[in-house]
Every structure is written in C-alpha cells, then in structure tokens.
Specification:
It contains 3 helices and no strands. It is mostly helical and 93 residues long. The chain has a domain of 52 residues. The radius of gyration is 33 Å and the shape is rod-shaped. The N and C termini lie far apart (99 Å).
Length: 93
C-alpha cells in the first residue's frame, strides 16, 4: 500500500514536471508558436521574392528581345530624346 502511494506521488510529480515543460513561458509550447510565426513570415517573404523574380524575368526577356523596350529604358535612364520627340525640362524657381 505504501509502495502504491509512493508510485502515484512520483507519477504526479513527473506529470507536473512535464506540464511545466510544456506550458511554462519560454518552453516548448511558446517555442512552437514562435517557430510557426517565423515560418509564416518566411513563407510570406518567399512569395514576395517569387513575385519579384517573375517581374525581373519578364523585364530581362523584354530587354533581350524588344528593341522598342530597350530604347524606352535607355531614354528613361540617360535622358536621350528619340527622333521626333521634344524634351521638356522642369523649371523650379
């Protein structure tokens, strides 16, 4: 009978210790929540990077294959004016 009470007391103590390890601040459950939050943030960042990658791939293909787009980019970056175009410079007083 005494041995049985002793075993029950030890099992209750082990259960209390395990519950503390799971639910205490900074323990397993909190770490799990933090890792799930970090995972969600990384997935969101990955989707943004994938969208940017698609946009840049399209732009690369246009630059490789379209002389019209190449001319547009060169004119916007360097300020060159195409034939028949008029350059307007903003005036700041």
């Amino acid at each position: 009978m005494m041995l049985r009470r002793f075993l029950i007391l030890i099992l209750v103590g082990i259960n209390a210790l395990l519950l503390y390890q799971i639910f205490a601040p900074g323990k397993a459950l909190q770490q799990y929540r933090d890792s799930r939050k970090a995972y969600s943030e990384l997935r969101r960042n990955l989707k943004e990077v994938e969208r940017e990658n698609v946009r840049l791939s399209r732009r690369i293909r246009l630059l490789q294959n379209s002389t019209v787009y190449q001319g547009k980019v060169v004119r916007s970056k360097t300020g060159f004016v195409g034939q028949g175009e008029i350059l307007y410079l903003p005036f700041e007083p």
